[in-house]
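Hello,

Our lab assistant flagged a job as stuck in the queue for most of the afternoon. It eventually completed. Since we weren't sure the result was trustworthy after the delay, we are filing this so someone can double-check. Below is the sequence as submitted and the structure that was eventually returned. Let us know if re-running is recommended.
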Amino acid sequence: MFNLVKDFESAIADFFGSPYAIATDSCTHAIELCLRLTQADQVTCPSQTYISVPFTFIKCGCEWKFEDYDWQEYYQIGNTNIFDAATYWKPNGYIKDTLMCISFQNKKHLKLGRGGIILCDNKQHYNVLCKMVYDGRDILRPWREENIEIIGYHYYMTPETAELGLQKLDQAVSNPATIVYSNEYPYLPNMKVFQQNVSN
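-- returned structure --
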């Protein structure tokens, strides 16, 4: 059944014009995998974004801080090549040499309840992320037949979610997406949790 996941990844890659795509169980976990892949240890995010992004920095042990700036559709995480593109939906919109993380949560353009995907154009990154997302395994092989070499994180998209994505994709492609702006999010530095845990 995981062939459905591969089919969904191919369809999303084709839409965005990305050579590769790796489906995940959430956009937050997609960002986490990219941070771990690139070993990013000093990062920033805008002061107005979804709350899970700075939580992920804390989880990964990054040195991090907020920055005050406006954004629309997507933003770059500090000086990395990782983009939080959770709300982004644009044909051939992939940005070269980046890791773009898209969300399929129910408030996003392609509504699957939960799910995300990483777009990339680096074959080595693709190969590693495919295993990181699925417990270090090859998603299409029985794990007992493998000698696992890298740490995996059990963040894979289920075949059922991928199947729903394939069913809804044509409608999502035919409908224009709503552009999301930073001012639609609260100012996170005012929250007590970040006054206690920010590293800047």
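-- support follow-up --
The delay was a queue issue, not a problem with the job. The result is valid. The longest helix spans residues 159-174. The chain has a mean pLDDT of 95.
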